[in-house]
From TrEMBL:
Region Disordered, residue ranges: 98-120
Name of this chain's protein: Uncharacterized protein
Biased composition (Basic and acidic residues): 107-120
Superkingdom of the organism of origin: Bacteria
Length: 120
């Protein structure tokens, strides 16, 4: 698998994960605002289906489809870009936060161990 295909697979998995997170958020929101929860749920379902449909397409076909969408439906393309960008930024922020916490949690133990070695 070449680099572009690997990135496509990674990107589609990330989009799928974001769609699942949106579904879970819609489920939690359902009691408070059922109509908003339905809108989120429907959008997440469409995004998840789109990511599954794109798995079998070549990169060139995806680029051609996106280019066509941008020309024929610029408002939809822009709106979709904003949503995907927001979802990816949230996904990346949550991932970097986990890394920061894991790194911070490991530091005291490592420092204490090093201090014990120096004094022992």
């Amino acid at each position: 698998m070449n680099f572009a295909e690997q990135q496509k697979t990674y990107g589609l998995r990330s989009v799928g994960s974001a769609a699942q997170a949106a579904q879970e958020a819609a489920d939690r929101l359902g009691g408070e605002s059922p109509s908003l929860a339905n809108v989120i749920r429907n959008a997440a379902t469409k995004v998840e289906q789109m990511s599954k449909d794109l798995e079998d397409q070549k990169i060139e076909d995806i680029v051609a489809s996106v280019s066509s969408l941008a020309r024929t439906e610029p408002v939809a393309f822009f709106g979709g870009s904003v949503i995907v960008g927001f979802m990816l930024s949230r996904l990346l922020k949550s991932g970097s936060g986990d890394f920061s916490r894991a790194t911070a949690n490991s530091r005291p133990r490592d420092l204490n161990h090093a201090r014990d070695l120096n004094h022992g």
